[in-house]
Design a protein that fits this description.
7 strands; two-stranded antiparallel sheet; five-stranded antiparallel beta sheet; alpha+beta
């Protein structure tokens, strides 16, 4: 669980993750730094994910020139005590990705408040989204990493519903339909880790 990683990371304690079905296998070592030869085809060091997210997406012409649109959307969610996991955006589009369970009881109220406060041209919600993270090392300095990941998924018939990637490229996060969750992880593992 992610809450158990934070304290050991703060103290720089290596964590060894083992397979319960094969406890004698060496498992995966998670640590702050990596030493040794780097295989250029093994840029992914870990894959993780979760199912059952929703994406609230709004578009508004000229949004990139307006101050405070995202703040107004986040303020609505804050008033409802809802934490946002990811905020992918475009020129005239912003989306918030959050656990479906957090919004499902108040979704209509939340959507009405966002519509009133942000005044979007369109406001949509997409359910049944799984979020997958490909974690790696030095991906920012290796051209084409995202392309290789998305090509492998596309060739397997998996549609990408959302992309969120920071400038450090420690991880590339993307959304797929819940039904494609296991297959997306399998494709990444077989293509880049195995």
């Amino acid at each position: 669980h992610e809450d158990s990683i934070f304290p050991v990371r703060e103290k720089n304690i290596p964590v060894n993750i083992r397979n319960t079905n094969d406890p004698e296998a060496p498992g995966t070592m998670i640590q702050e730094s990596f030493s040794g030869d780097v295989d250029p085809d093994r840029f992914i060091t870990g894959i993780t994910g979760k199912k059952d997210f929703s994406i609230i997406s709004l578009t508004k012409r000229g949004m990139s020139n307006q101050v405070g649109v995202l703040r107004r959307v986040l303020s609505v969610l804050e008033r409802h005590n809802i934490s946002v996991d990811y905020v992918p955006n475009g020129i005239d589009n912003v989306s918030v990705v959050l656990p479906t369970a957090a919004v499902e009881k108040e979704l209509y109220t939340i959507m009405a408040e966002i519509k009133k406060e942000a005044q979007p041209d369109t406001l949509d919600v997409h359910h049944h989204i799984a979020v997958v993270a490909a974690v790696g090392r030095k991906m920012a300095f290796r051209p084409g990493i995202s392309g290789r990941i998305f090509k492998a998924l596309g060739e397997s018939g998996i549609n990408i519903r959302m992309i969120n990637q920071g400038p450090d490229e420690l991880n590339i996060i993307f959304g797929v339909d819940n039904k494609d969750f296991r297959e997306a992880i399998r494709v990444l593992y077989n293509s880049f880790v195995k």
